[in-house]
Structures are given as structure tokens and as C-alpha cells.
Design goal:
This is Secreted protein. The protein has 288 residues and is mostly beta strands. It has one helix and 17 strands. It folds into two domains: 107 residues, Sandwich (Immunoglobulin-like), CATH 2.60.40; 113 residues, Sandwich (Immunoglobulin-like). The strands form three sheets. An eight-stranded antiparallel β-sheet has the order 10-11-12-15-14-13-16-17, with no helix packed on it. A five-stranded antiparallel β-sheet has the order 1-2-3-7-6, with no helix packed on it.
Length: 288
């Protein structure tokens, strides 16, 4: 029998103390620190969700936050690295280094903008027609990323004083009316996507006269852009366009790949360009 060392006695005494206190603790002295694992096909990778102002070594620093309602309310922020230094260069993500989103907690007010870099600070303006609780998101792809398809998303809450006219989140439905009379209809199956499962959402875009749109004009380097937000958590989900820009649409269908991290309802905002204008459609999806 091997003679017990002083370290072995210390671990044995500590284990007895933990058990006596009503808990159980397991030690693995020789195990290395936990590393990020490649889950492969077991669990698809989900994007960061903007529920924190710190993610993947980056931090959202507030510079100017909205304090009132208006059509051009200034917003300014910095993205800091782990050493606290501003980061001003990122990879292009659908033709832009920085995507910025603002959404009210009832999903009734939404904006997708592209801030301008001013020195080390990103600046833009928001249209805030009503008071209430909001959340803003900064989405970017670091230069040294191992996977350009997975952007970093940082988020912070903010509130706008004044009266608020709340609007209930529309229930999941097959169709949604976009601006200028365009209609977007979900044609994908299953009707209820599953959480943490990669899947494709298929949408059919109909022109105001009811005919399927045969082609779309490029928007942000693709046929369209879509972002989703969990209606309870206010977490963000980025969806990837499948069809290449300029490719004719089959029966007006446009596809996006997505991994929804949580169960519940998501409000999805689709942007597409047609007829020389940018159109937006919003609809609700229930994730099981």
C-alpha cells in the first residue's frame, strides 16, 4: 500500500469536513483548467446575445445615452478590449464593421443603424417617439475571431422618461404586412422551431399586387437582413441569409439560418430592398 502524503491527508480531511457540513465536493487534482469545447453536431454554436455589456474580452462603455424623446437623439459609445483600450477596427459583417440595434421592451419600437466612428467613439442618433424601457445592442466581429459567422453582441439597458403607449407583442402568425403593402409569409416547417437546433426559416415575399417578388436589390451585401429578440429576455439573435445577393428568388422565397438559444417567443425584424426602397417586416415566432 502506498504511503499517504501530507497533501493526500489534507484532501481527505477537507472531504470529511465538507460531507459533515451537508455538502459534497469532488476534487480532480490532476485535471487541467476547463477549456472551450467544440460541441460539433451535439449542440450548435449560438451567438452572444447582448444580455451583458461584457463578452469575449470586450466591454461596452457608455459615452452618451438617450435622456429624452425625439427624432434624432444622440448616442455615443466605445468598445473596450481586456486592457481597457478602445477598439476601432473590426471585420466587415454584411458590409459594416458595426451594427447597432435599439428595441423597446414591448418590441413596438425598433431601429437598426450603423454608427460612424469618431476617433475612438462610435456615434449615431436614435428616433425615440415614446417613453419606456429600451435596450441597445452593438454587434461586431473581432479581427482575430476564429469564426466570422459568430459576431460579438454587447447590450445595455436605457430608459426614456415620459408617457408610454404600450403595444402587445403580436401572436405567432403565418403572415405579416411590411411597409408599402408588401407581405411576408412564413413557408418553413416545422412551424415551431426548436431551441439550440440549427434550422432554416423560409419566407415568401409578395409585392403589393400579391405576386411573388422574383428578385431583391442587395441590402448590406445580401438579399436581406434579419435580427430577432426574445420578447421576455430581450436577448438578440442574428440570422444568416442563405441566398447570395442578386440570385433570383424561387416563388419569392428568402431563407435565413438561425439557432435560437432559448424557448419562448421571438420578434423577428426583416429588412429587404425592392423598388428602390428599404422595407421592413416584423413577425413573431414561437420556439419550443
Amino acid at each position: 500500500m502506498r504511503k499517504l502524503s501530507l497533501v493526500d491527508w489534507m484532501f481527505a480531511l477537507l472531504a470529511v469536513a465538507v460531507v459533515a457540513g451537508g455538502g459534497i465536493m469532488v476534487f480532480a487534482r490532476s485535471a487541467p483548467p476547463m477549456q472551450h469545447q467544440n460541441m460539433g453536431a451535439v449542440v450548435p454554436a449560438a451567438h452572444s446575445d447582448g444580455l451583458s455589456d461584457v463578452e469575449s474580452g470586450y466591454r461596452f462603455e457608455r459615452v452618451i445615452m438617450p435622456e429624452t424623446r425625439g427624432t434624432a437623439v444622440p448616442v455615443a459609445f466605445r468598445i473596450l478590449d481586456g486592457a481597457g483600450k478602445p477598439v476601432t477596427r473590426f471585420l466587415d459583417n454584411q458590409t459594416k464593421q458595426m451594427h447597432f440595434f435599439s428595441v423597446r421592451e414591448d418590441m413596438f419600437v425598433f431601429e437598426h443603424l450603423h454608427p460612424v466612428l469618431d476617433g475612438d467613439t462610435w456615434r449615431t442618433t436614435l428616433s425615440l417617439p415614446d417613453g419606456g424601457a429600451y435596450r441597445m445592442f452593438a454587434e461586431f466581429v473581432p479581427l482575430d475571431t476564429a469564426d466570422p459567422r459568430h459576431p460579438v453582441v454587447l447590450g445595455v439597458p436605457f430608459s426614456v422618461p415620459g408617457d408610454t403607449t404600450w403595444a402587445p407583442v403580436p401572436a405567432p402568425e403565418a403572415g405579416a404586412v411590411a411597409t408599402d403593402g408588401y407581405t411576408v409569409v412564413r413557408v418553413d416547417e416545422p412551424a415551431q422551431p426548436k431551441a439550440m437546433t440549427q434550422q432554416t426559416l423560409r419566407l415568401s415575399i409578395r409585392a403589393p399586387d400579391g405576386t411573388p417578388v422574383s428578385s431583391l436589390e442587395p441590402h448590406l451585401g445580401a438579399n436581406g437582413h434579419m435580427t430577432g429578440f426574445h420578447t421576455m429576455l430581450l436577448s438578440a439573435t442574428h440570422l444568416h441569409p442563405v441566398e447570395l445577393a442578386g440570385i433570383p428568388l424561387n416563388n419569392g422565397e428568402l431563407s435565413f439560418q438561425a439557432v435560437f438559444a432559448d424557448r419562448g417567443e421571438y420578434r423577428l425584424f426583416l429588412e429587404f430592398a425592392h423598388g428602390g426602397k428599404l422595407h421592413r417586416s416584423a413577425f413573431t415566432v414561437s420556439v419550443g
